[in-house]
Amino acid sequence: MNEERKIETEEVTGVPTPPRARVVPETTTETFERKRDYLAGFLSGEKEEEPKGGAGSDLQATVVEALKSIYDPEIPVDIYELGLIYNVEISEDGDATITMTLTTPHCPVAESLPQEVELRVLSVPGIRDAVVNLVWDPPWDPSKMSDEARLELGML
């Protein structure tokens, strides 16, 4: 009973990021489509046209509108107008890469907000995959807020 137990520890310098799951068509003619409401498309008998990707595209504008629907829980302003979104890149294939930050590293939603951004972007029709990069450089400061956000917070 009085055996001495030895605890071994291993120091790890980094963990490789696991590959993201993607559905790839088996043939070049096969494509995968996403519809917002399958019943509406079925009843109308029409195929809904999805926006095309790329910089400055309608798909990028739709993603930005989706990001504007996410509000900071402590400040009554959406995260896009607050200046937390640094970059929105959409590839021709519909892959979205969002570069964002938080107001502080100790933000209470540091774990949940990037996940919410990823889910909201993935809900946009035409987006195949979404990756959210959380960065701390350059750090956020109130100068990154839009005029609309400053007006809402009474800073103008």
From TrEMBL:
Superkingdom to which the source organism belongs: Bacteria
Organism: Sphingomonas limnosediminicola
Location of region: Disordered: 1-30
The protein, known as: MIP18 family-like domain-containing protein
Transmembrane segments: none
PANTHER family tied to this protein: FE-S PROTEIN MATURATION AUXILIARY FACTOR YITW
Pfam families for this protein: FeS_assembly_P
SUPFAM superfamilies associated with the record: Fe-S cluster assembly (FSCA) domain-like (SSF117916)
